[in-house]
Amino acid sequence: xxxxxxxxxAVLQRDExxxxxxxxxxxxxxxxxxxxxxxxxxxxDGCLLIALWSGGGVLVIWDGRKHIDINLRSFNGKxxxxxxRIFDKFEKKIIEQLPSMKTILxxxxxxxYGRVINxxxxxxxxxxxxxx
Length: 132
Known about the structure:
By secondary structure, the chain is an alpha+beta fold. It has helices spanning 14-27, 29-32, 80-97, and strands at residues 2-5, 36-40, 47-53, 56-62, 67-74, 101-105, 111-113, 116-118.
């Protein structure tokens, strides 16, 4: 999803963005487990924050001004409802920590290959192979 500053006079700082991501990660910690947050701040005015865990990860790109891109993904996909709740909780916590921000775009990007989109609930379970 994408966030933008709504107030003209609001100014974000790198520490604020990192703190918001850390708080959002801790809010979903019981579901995702421990995730180390890495920061890359030598990329211009903003920064790139990456956190990976066994079931997914998050990439946060801040342009150094008024825009944040967040790519939150899960490798699990077993229960789309609980996955959506986790993603919503993460987004809500980010906005709670950065009250001058507003979600301007929220896309769901299901897994797939080429032009085929595969939602986890649409994929039939394959029984164990006899020769494996």
